[in-house]
Design brief:
CATH class: Alpha Beta
Strand content: 15-25%
Strand order of the largest sheet: 9-8-10-1-11-14-7-15
Helix content: 25-40%
Oligomer: single chain
Length: 472
C-alpha cells in the first residue's frame, strides 16, 4: 500500500486532510499512518423523514377528526422493542419504489435482522420546523450555534493520534469543522475519475487523450509549478508548491487510489442472506437489465462503498452522507416511501458491508433527519414540517435491539422519567424531560471520548436541566 503516495495524490486532487495548522507539505513529508478504528459514519435523511413508516409505527388515531392519520399502515407492533409498521391494505408492509411496484425494504425484517444492533430514539423534540436549524441541531447538538459536526469532532480527535490523509470525508449536509480537522469534499463513487482524470468515465479502457498528450500535459504542469515556486516569497507557499511538484513527478502516486477504485463492486450473493426474502427478487436484478452489471442492491450502496473502503484502508476516521427526497409536501405516501426505501436499504448495505470488510464491530453509525412530518395530511396529500423525529445509533458498546422514548397517538413527543429513561410519562406530566438533540450529542461525546479532547471546551452544548443517560 503506497499510503504516502496516496496522500500526495489527494493533495493534488484537493482532498487532503491534515492536522489543524499543519500545511500540506509538512504532512506529506511525514510517513503516513493508518487508523485501525473505531470509525464514525453519520447518515442523514435530508428534508425531514416520516419515522412512522420505519421505526415509530403508528396507526390512525381514534375519533372522527383524529389527531393523527395514516392512510397506509394498518397494523403496527414491536420488533426487538422497536415499534414498526407491520401491514397495509395489501398485506405485509414493505417499503416500495416506482409507484409502489417494487419492494426494496422491510422494516420488520430490518429490525429483526441486521438492524437489531441499532438503538432507536423516538420522540426527539428538535424544537424547530426549519430545515437548516434541524440539520444543524441533529449534526452538532446545538440549534443556535454552529458547532462542529459530530463526525468532524471525532475525526479531529483521531487526528491528534494519527496523521490520516482523508480523516474527515464530507458527503453530507452539515460538515462544519471548527478547524479541528480539515475537510475532504468527497466525490462519492467518482473516485475512479480522480485515479484516471483523462477518461470520460472511470470504466473506459482508453483515455480521451493519447499517452503522449498526457505526458506533455504533466510536463507543462510541472514546469508551471516550478515557475510558481520560484516566484513565491512566503516559506509556506514555497513548501506547498514543493510538495505539489514532488507529487506530480511520483510514478507510484496513483497506486493506492487506483487499487481502491478498481476492486470492483462486491457480489450480490454476499448480501443475500441478510436481505428480506420479499425484496430479493427486485434487489437481485442487474441494473437496467444489463448482463454482468451490478445488482440493484449493490448499486444502491455504491455511494457509500468508497467511504467504507477508506475506513477499511485506515486512511479515514469519520464521514457524513446525505440522501434527499424526504421533503414530501405533496403525494406523501408515494414519495416518502420512495425515499425511505432507498435510504433504509443503504443503511442495511452499510451494516452488512461493514461486517464483510471486517470493520462492523468498529463502526459507529448515526442516522438522523431534519425533523419529522406533520400528523395530518395537507390539501395536496402531503405532510409538512413537524418538530418531532427519531434517530438511530449503533456502534461498539451501544446496546441495540431497543427503543428509548415514545410519541403519543397524535405523534407528539412524550417525556421520559429523569431517573429512568426507559419509563415514558403520560402527557401532562411535566416531571420528566423531552429528549433533545443536545442530550444525544452529549452522550455521543461521552461514548466517543470526545469529552476528553483538548478542543472540546471551545464547543459547549446548550445547558440542559438534567443529562439523560441515553447510551447507558
Amino acid at each position: 500500500m503506497y499510503r504516502r503516495d496516496f496522500a500526495k495524490l489527494t493533495g493534488l486532487a484537493g482532498l487532503s486532510v491534515f492536522l489543524p495548522g499543519t500545511i500540506a507539505s509538512q504532512a506529506v513529508a511525514q510517513d503516513q499512518q493508518t487508523w485501525g478504528g473505531p470509525y464514525f459514519l453519520h447518515m442523514h435523511a435530508a428534508g425531514g423523514w416520516d419515522p412512522t413508516i420505519f421505526c415509530d409505527g403508528k396507526l390512525t388515531a381514534p375519533g372522527t377528526t383524529p389527531d393523527y392519520e395514516n392512510r397506509v399502515v394498518t397494523e403496527a407492533g414491536l420488533v426487538n422493542g422497536v415499534p414498526v409498521p407491520l401491514a397495509d391494505a395489501n398485506g405485509k408492509f414493505l417499503l416500495k419504489v416506482n409507484q409502489g411496484a417494487n419492494a426494496i425494504e422491510d422494516p420488520a425484517h430490518f429490525f429483526g435482522n441486521v438492524g437489531s444492533r441499532m438503538l432507536v430514539l423516538n420522540g426527539i423534540d428538535t424544537q424547530t420546523n426549519n430545515h437548516e436549524t434541524g440539520v444543524q441541531g441533529l449534526a452538532c447538538g446545538h440549534n443556535d450555534v454552529e458547532l462542529p459536526a459530530i463526525a468532524a469532532l471525532f475525526s479531529g480527535a483521531v487526528m491528534q493520534q494519527k496523521n490520516l490523509p482523508l480523516a474527515f470525508l464530507a458527503h453530507g449536509q452539515y460538515n462544519r469543522t471548527g478547524d479541528v480537522v480539515g475537510v475532504s469534499r468527497f466525490p462519492g463513487d467518482k473516485v475512479g475519475l480522480l485515479a484516471d482524470p483523462f477518461k470520460a468515465a472511470s470504466g473506459d479502457e482508453k483515455g480521451m487523450l493519447s499517452e503522449v498528450a498526457q505526458r506533455r500535459i504533466a510536463e507543462i504542469r510541472t514546469q508551471r509549478l516550478v515557475q510558481l515556486q520560484a516566484q513565491a516569497s512566503l516559506p509556506r507557499n514555497k513548501r506547498t508548491l514543493a510538495a505539489m511538484i514532488d507529487a506530480a513527478k511520483g510514478g507510484g502516486t496513483l497506486t493506492l487510489l487506483k487499487e481502491l477504485a478498481n476492486q470492483g463492486p462486491p457480489d450480490f450473493s454476499a448480501f443475500e442472506a441478510g436481505l428480506s426474502p420479499e425484496t430479493i427478487p427486485y434487489l437481485s436484478q442487474p441494473i437496467n437489465g444489463q448482463a454482468n452489471a451490478a445488482s440493484r442492491f449493490v448499486d444502491l450502496g455504491r455511494p457509500l462503498e468508497v467511504l467504507l473502503r477508506c475506513f477499511k484502508y485506515g486512511v479515514s476516521a469519520g464521514a457524513t452522507f446525505a440522501q434527499g427526497g424526504f421533503d414530501t409536501h405533496d403525494n406523501h405516501d408515494i414519495n416518502q416511501q420512495n425515499a425511505m426505501a432507498v435510504f433504509v436499504a443503504r443503511l442495511r448495505y452499510v451494516l452488512l458491508r461493514a461486517d464483510q470488510l471486517g470493520i462492523g464491530d468498529k463502526l459507529y453509525v448515526l442516522v438522523t433527519s431534519d425533523f419529522g412530518r406533520t400528523p395530518r395530511y395537507n390539501t395536496g396529500n402531503g405532510r409538512d414540517h413537524w418538530n418531532v423525529t427519531s434517530a438511530l445509533l449503533s456502534g461498539p458498546g451501544i446496546a441495540g435491539g431497543r427503543a428509548i422514548g415514545k410519541t403519543d397517538a397524535g405523534f407528539k413527543a412524550m417525556r421520559v422519567a429523569k431517573g429512568n429513561i426507559n419509563e415514558t410519562l403520560e402527557q401532562g406530566d411535566t416531571s420528566g424531560a423531552r429528549i433533545h438533540p443536545a442530550h444525544l450529542h452529549s452522550e455521543m461525546r461521552r461514548v466517543l471520548s470526545l469529552d476528553k479532547a483538548n478542543f472540546i471546551g471551545g464547543f459547549p452544548l446548550p445547558a440542559q436541566e438534567n443529562a439523560l443517560p441515553l447510551l447507558g
